[in-house]
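User: My notes are a mess, but here's the protein and zinc ion's SMILES. Can you give me a structure?
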Amino acid sequence: QPPVGTDRLAAEVQLLMSTTPVWDLHTHLYPATFGSPTCEPTGSRDPNGLALWGIDELLTYHYLVAEVFRVVPPCELPYEQFWKMSKQEQADHIWQHLFLDRTPISEACRGVLTTLERLGLDPGERDLASYRKWFQQQSLDSHIDRVMQIAGISRITMTNPVFDDNERNRWLADESIGDDPRFAAVLRFDPLLRDWDMAGAKLREWGYEVSQELSAATIAEVRRFIRDWVSRIKAIYCAVSLPPGFRYGGSDDLTPGSTIFRDAVLPTLAELGLPMAMMIGSELQVNPSLGDAGDTVGKSDVQSVIRLCHDFPENRFLVTMLARENQHELAVAARKFGNLMVFGCWWFLNNPSLVEEITRMRVELLGTSFVPQHSDARVLEQLIYKWEHSRAIIAKVLVDKYNDVEATGWKINEEEIRRDVQHLLSGAFEKFLAR
Amino acid sequence: QPPVGTDRLAAEVQLLMSTTPVWDLHTHLYPATFGSPTCEPTGSRDPNGLALWGIDELLTYHYLVAEVFRVVPPCELPYEQFWKMSKQEQADHIWQHLFLDRTPISEACRGVLTTLERLGLDPGERDLASYRKWFQQQSLDSHIDRVMQIAGISRITMTNPVFDDNERNRWLADESIGDDPRFAAVLRFDPLLRDWDMAGAKLREWGYEVSQELSAATIAEVRRFIRDWVSRIKAIYCAVSLPPGFRYGGSDDLTPGSTIFRDAVLPTLAELGLPMAMMIGSELQVNPSLGDAGDTVGKSDVQSVIRLCHDFPENRFLVTMLARENQHELAVAARKFGNLMVFGCWWFLNNPSLVEEITRMRVELLGTSFVPQHSDARVLEQLIYKWEHSRAIIAKVLVDKYNDVEATGWKINEEEIRRDVQHLLSGAFEKFLAR
Amino acid sequence: QPPVGTDRLAAEVQLLMSTTPVWDLHTHLYPATFGSPTCEPTGSRDPNGLALWGIDELLTYHYLVAEVFRVVPPCELPYEQFWKMSKQEQADHIWQHLFLDRTPISEACRGVLTTLERLGLDPGERDLASYRKWFQQQSLDSHIDRVMQIAGISRITMTNPVFDDNERNRWLADESIGDDPRFAAVLRFDPLLRDWDMAGAKLREWGYEVSQELSAATIAEVRRFIRDWVSRIKAIYCAVSLPPGFRYGGSDDLTPGSTIFRDAVLPTLAELGLPMAMMIGSELQVNPSLGDAGDTVGKSDVQSVIRLCHDFPENRFLVTMLARENQHELAVAARKFGNLMVFGCWWFLNNPSLVEEITRMRVELLGTSFVPQHSDARVLEQLIYKWEHSRAIIAKVLVDKYNDVEATGWKINEEEIRRDVQHLLSGAFEKFLAR
Ligand SMILES: [Mg+2]
Ligand SMILES: [Zn+2]
Ligand SMILES: [Zn+2]
Ligand SMILES: [Zn+2]
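Assistant: No problem, the inputs look usable. Here's the predicted complex:
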């Protein structure tokens, strides 16, 4: 193949970046089978449904709830009063204060506009009523197809918390609930590592013969529990979110969390050939009144990740950290361990200036051997903006790096760009899964 | 109003940014009533005066004293010898070594040039004598007007340390000393929180019946002291500077500083409806020979700020931190608490590359709900450069963010730009004060 | 001299930056006298030689070894198997996987391409065999001249670890081994400060009468040891690499490392008038299977550096830190102490995006009073790419800063650019040495 040529390079990268499908490795999205609190055109809805979508969910995303409480503080609108409002009233409140009373330039606000525009609606009209009308005509199942097509997503990875009764009961009630081929499941079991008292009690309730002390028999039962659920939901990996204070102290670390991690979780996953994902750095509920928006960030311990990667060469680890101040050290750690895959710019890092600095740093340190982004979408249509914004930044970094090597005489052709882009958007993750 | 149009957007933002007045929320400036060590054309001067201005003060700003000791180190010019030189000799030394012997490209050097140029002098002449001559013809009181006009400042917020005898005695001697409407007062009482032994002794000396133990009676007297001084100086908020090691441990934290903060300071401010400002992260006097230039920076504890915002919902907090490594976490904390207003890029952060990364990150996380900058000026004319440099960066970030939302079809008109710029330069602070 | 003029400024800076010689203050390079494992055209080689050069050394640089183990993980190619391969086989493996199977855009990969191109080879050919052929025709001694000429290096500073037997014995065997005027020596003695048990035993073996307890007599012998070796190798400074956990606790700190630092090392260096270099932040061998590539980074304690600079005003310190999160605080510390010279962007920081942010921040805080870069080259030809990439970034920052001051009317002429560039590339270091 002839080289693309420096003058066409940027355009070619942008084109391939925007047309190559993404496998989104971490979201909080669900197929229609999990029910949705948003009304279908038929009028049916499931008030406790897990699949969130539509304009009112977009506007009441917890990122925007946090932001509206800065401009209409609780002394003007108490938290309880906000939470008593209907979803539509909350959305109206947010629209008024974050979109009309000031220019919607925070990343979360901008995301709503990008999403509307790509769905064919006109943000220039600033007409919430008309947007609502359009969404009311959509039916979730086909809407998923449309959103995936617009966002360029080939597969959506769910997060399936087994200690959440609402979710757990749905899996127990319907064996085929997870069969939608557009979605992949992930077994999430934070309480196992973070709160063994609670987790152990639940396991007993669910028929696993565990004691509070972590005897060999108990460990065996925890392993059985993990195997059962991995198999029930067909998990492609397992996951936990861990606080900034998470430490793994090695084989001498006898805390319940570390013991279960070392003796139950990791051997089971090694046996099953599944990676373990750790999202580290979220300090939970520093402001409980904000609900999902109440968590904050803290610096985490990369050394603990290093110790895990070193001590468990048979395991593979997918790791993201929430603190900006961990990103360089984490990328360096990935240079040391092939079984460590860094991924994404999580939550408070999923902002253009930070995505760019992190992506640039990762490419410089790791080439293309990382997963640049995941969406963390909680509302279906967020896939659109999260990926559009991220793709533009990844493309920008890639063009700069290609230009640097082309300046030496190394010429890049279209096939190579396609290969690199595919690798970044899905291949790196896919190959890591398949290892 | 019609949209501005993408082609005119940048110019419009820059124009409005440079013509919209700033309320500078933290400086160390004073009106002429506080006296000035710089000679008036009439020949009068107050050697201990607090109002600093003029070319020799600009050149001997402690930022530049620190820098000159790197290029003429103490082994060549001992500290004591430098401090024995007259102000004009010090200025000559700095001019020679930082401006003539090398190109003045540090931010503090560049600031002097910007200031001269905006005052109508020509930095291209490199003629210190002629600059001095011009300054000698100025009279402070009208010079303040001119500087504020050039810098586009509507109001200058002072810092009024009540434990500084030079300043305190001036307030006691002249009831109307603070009546200059161009200036607003701020009660600063670091020793109350940082050194109760010293502060308590002083309070007793000043007629407040306090004991070293923090009995209820003592707390009541501390509260009376705060009320007295807030009312005497008409403080618009109270302030402390805290070291990187500052911790607030919650209601169980019985250290004197935390006890006074919790039981005396915050309830009094809640009662008076005034915000509490905390500038956190300055490690004092690691090199005492440098005087004001001898402090350094350390990473602070954002969790303590979170605890204060959570435990004192009736109080409002203005917070800035000195460490770059605290900026992301602090901006995230502000997403959690409407009573937390982050402000400014302080001291070692007030450099273009850092102001830009911090401002960009804050806009992405907080929209416009923060105070992007304060000048921290100690010498009157620094207002000019600090704000010219900062405005250019804030405008640049704003243009990028406007362009991002305009790309979705959301169109911005002049009135909206004006609204956003006013909010950033004065409104956010003003509304926070008025809450 | 007339000003350069804004339109010619960038070109002039780039020209002077690329033609002004560099004194590279830290490398791991050696003159031919130290032997080389790479074959000369004559067929001679020294399998344990220290002077690394040639295409196979470039391709098996430990940065690239780390990177290849991410894409061909140890589960596919075990570490031991890789290490058993010949150097050429390792190079082939890395060429295939990091250059052909994916685009070589990591900084370490790009560096190989820049190096080839500047040596007159064509990276566009992707023809490793032809590159090898070219290198096989080079003779090290004249190749050093060529590389220095292409890279624009006036002097290469070695690192000479006295506790390394291979190196130590070469110095003992040949008095004139270090006489190549292109190279300057540096005495490196990490074990003295990091492992007194080992170091003390070695010193006894080498005829110094030291005991494990740090008696006055022992300290005197350690001082004699340092003097002996400084004089034998004609060291221009002494150096240690220290872990992130390094602490200097002041005069009360009685740990062996701190005692030797305080009582033996620093007084001896003050006496000899030599600076002490500290490279802080490398956590050794978190993955020993990777060999030289197995170290990682951790955040270090700037306060310990401050304490040293404060307590030892008669000493001069050259300091670099490996963690990105130390860079701002370290640059601020340099504002406080004229005897602290910050230098370089070390190892995991020697990536374009980080070099740029660090250089920009340092210029803003320190003007030109720092050493922007060192190469840390281990393979001779790396000098070419490390300096070409760094010079481009330093030039970019300088142009921006010049433009900022020119905007005020301050005009810059060619002589001044030359002066500033010389200062950054060699003068700052040279004057610091000579102080
Ligand atoms: Mg940056
Ligand atoms: Zn998530
Ligand atoms: Zn201040
Ligand atoms: Zn080195």
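Chain C has 18 helices and ten strands.
User: Great, I'll file this with my notes.
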